[in-house]
Amino acid sequence: MEDYRAASLFQPSNLAKALEDTMDPSSGRPTHLMGTFVSVPHTISARTLAVLGYDCVLIDAQHTPIEAENLVRLIQTVSLSSQGRTVPVCRVPSAQSDLLTYALDAGAGGIIFPHIDTPEQAAEAVSKCRYAYSDGDRSLAPAVLVPGVTDVAPPGSSHERVADKNIAVIIQIESPLALANADAIAAVPGVNALMLGAGDLRVAMRCPPRQVGDPEDPKILDAIERLVNVSRRHQKPLAVVTFKLSEKAKIWLKDFQLLVISSDYSSLVKGHKDDLARMRQTLAEVQGLKN
After folding, report:
1. What is each CA distance from 224 to 194, 249, 256, in whole angstroms?
2. 240 — alpha (psi -120 to 50), left (phi > 0) or beta?
3. Rounded Cα gap, residues 239 and 113, in angstroms
4. 114 Cβ neighbours under 8 A, 6+ residues apart
5. I need a surface site. Which of 138, 193, 233, 234 has the fewest CB within 10 A?
């Protein structure tokens, strides 16, 4: 992601272009971007994930109790710790959430909008992320502007236009209505990618409860195929969380361009469970040798 950095680390990297390039084999750029979720809302977690080589660190302000000041710290920790090599992305509760404004002003390179069901809702989400220069209604925040530091821009441009060009709007598809409207949502100007919200979609479709690693319901597999076809028709990248998938379902991952392959929370749980199991096994072996 280093090649997509803005002139200032306080400005958003060009995630929109990075996602676009995944759909163009002639670009010579990677066809997949790798991301991870911050669900433990502390700068130690954000700083650690930011230096591990991920393309994106996704800060989950939808399902994690994050207040505005901490959200700003988390976003800027990712940008500054990685020196712009890892892009902070924020999932906000909605287009109406006040956290959206703080995420944008802090320099988030992408915004994930959950529970978008219609093209009208998608258009509103785009508008909230764009200034009037790009037909949006984003408000200018003078308190975040430091002359010559956070407002730098290429000749003939401005920091507002840099933000409008660089910030990726990612729309989650996680209901039958959203799936039915996926073509129209993908066609909304300014929508840069679609994200499969498999968990909520599974519930909305009344699929049986599923544990991690269980075979996927045929309804979800059909939804995935429909989304992949939408992606191909509109040349819009697809994002998905991969660490909850069954092994058999992973055959279609090649058709998704932003892969969220882990989270701090899931890795914490897995690591502690594995360490505990190994120590119990070690003690059992030691006891066996003594006997």
Report:
1. 12, 10, 10
2. beta
3. 12
4. 62, 91, 92, 93, 94, 172, 174, 197, 200
5. 233
Q: Which long-range contacts (CB under 8 A, 24 or more apart) does 62-69 make?
A: 62/91, 62/92, 62/93, 62/114, 63/39, 64/38, 64/39, 64/40, 65/41, 66/41, 66/99, 68/98, 68/99, 68/102
Extract the tokens encoding 50: 């930011």
Q: 93, 61 in Cβ contact below 8 A?
A: yes
The letter for the amino acid at 80 is L
User: CB 70: neighbour CB atoms within 10 A?
Assistant: 18
Taking the C-alpha atoms of residue 50 and residue 44, their distance in angstroms, rounded to an integer, is: 10
90 φ, ψ (degrees, to nearest 5): -120, 130
